[in-house]
Amino acid sequence: xxxxSSSTAALGGRPRQSMTRASAASALPxxxxxxxxxxxxxxxxxxxxxxxxxxxxxxxxxxxxLRASLIATLHNVVHTENTPPLWYVLEWAFTRVxxxxxxxxxxxSALAGIATVPVAWMxxxxxxxxxxxxxxxxxxxxxxxxxxxxxxxxxxxxxVLTASLALLCFLRALRDPSxxxxxxxxxxASLALLSHYFAVFLLIPMVLWLLAGAAPAGSQRxxxxxxxxxNPKTLKRTLVAVAIPAIVGLALLPLILAxxxxxxxxxxxWALGARLEAIPQYYLxxxxxxxxxxxxxLLVALVLLAGFGYGLWCTLTPREERGALIALTVLxxxxxxxxxxxxxxxxxxxxxxxxxxxxPLSALLAIVIVAQRTGRVGxxxxxxxxxxxxxxxxxxxxxxxxxxxDWSGVxxxxxxxxxxxxxVTAQLGSAPLQYYLPALxxxxxxxxxxxxxxxxxxxxxxxxxxxxxxxxxxxLAERRDIHGLIVYRxxxxxxxxxxxxxxxxxxxxxxxxxxxxxxxxxxxxxx
Length: 527
Hints:
The chain is of the alpha+beta class. The protein folds into 2 domains: 32-217 and 231-402, no CATH class; 407-519, no CATH class. It is built from 21 helices and 6 strands. It has helices spanning 2-27, 32-46, 56-65, 70-80, 86-98, 102-128, 130-142, 144-149, 156-175, 179-195, 199-214, 232-259, 265-269, 272-285, 294-314, 318-343, 358-369, 375-398, 407-414, 430-436, 500-505; strands spanning 421-426, 440-442, 448-459, 475-482, 485-499, 514-519. Strands 2-6-1-3-5-4 form a 6-stranded mixed β-sheet. Strand 4 (475-482) and strand 5 form a beta hairpin. The termini are far apart.
């Protein structure tokens, strides 16, 4: 009798334990994974928001663009930038309230990056259900590239958010082409265009898909009937909805022409093949992942490819197939169209301009890797990929070699310079140094000024003879390496007149463009 009782207890123990675990799980609200993932995303973005120095593009905004007046700010956007105005308007409002410290400048991007996570969740759910929602949100929350641009005082974080909102509204309008859903898409698509010009490449496949779904029922695919009977009212609503962002795009053309691609010359100087190679590298290991080497990149890629291949081998459900096809179509438009344009001579293909396409890429990977038929294996592979992304993101936070240049550290060193001194820096250092040392101004060509100290700043590789004095009467007083930024300090016993041209010729970096800076007053103020 006791043996029977023991056997019964043994046999009944597991179901009872399983029921206990199931009860505990059911006690949690269904949205708890989203809450946990969003909190993780917020922690990654906010905890280290001011840790890194502002680099050139970020510092350029407060130094050369933002002004007390919104009108003056927009004037500078037209004449110094190559991005639509929405981010600058919002950034201007933020800085009017919070100031222009590094955290304040980056906060808008951080909030946009955090908000992108629940949007990515809803995108994954619309495409393929709850499993895809969890995986998509997790990939977006911890991907090192998306975290990087959530901590950058530029338009990319807002671009990712608005493009993701446009994708979500497109999916909802595709499922339910009501006036409300189509109006939401029109608004989100317009905001995406006002955030970044490359939004148009993501919107093109969405618009075509909506129009195809609303077109009159005259053609059938492979003899199969249409998913939904055509309705003339639906077609009319769809045409109006897609016309609104088209009008916004046309309204932006004068601004595009006026901006004329300011500051995009570097794109053409970067070999196209290297840029194409950087696109997947950015997604796998982040903006500065090249320093980690191809081995790390390959490891992350292998996890994703293994999960993707396993998902395809297990076969997708019809809903998953359709969701994957939609994500792939949007991704292809967002990446392939600018690549084709680059090959035909309209070359604005900077890999960072494709950052918003990484959300449909994340959704595509999530749909396939955690497809229903992959079971726990798919979930484990997705978790492993997300963990790899998380480790890389944390590594960036801990490793100065993977971070933005430490221009704040350089400025701290240069604050002890002699009152009459000049700074020669690679062009990428001019705006950061002017941000951290506001008294600095650029030396005009043809200027000759007496200086008792010349400070040379740049990245390796340095030009041959960088350690030699830049002018007669100077000698090398100090060499500093500040997390990869090299500083040479040359001093003279008395001020020596030096021309701007002579200073620029003495730049220690091999970069073709350099800037010469001089303090406006004898004492440098600190930012």
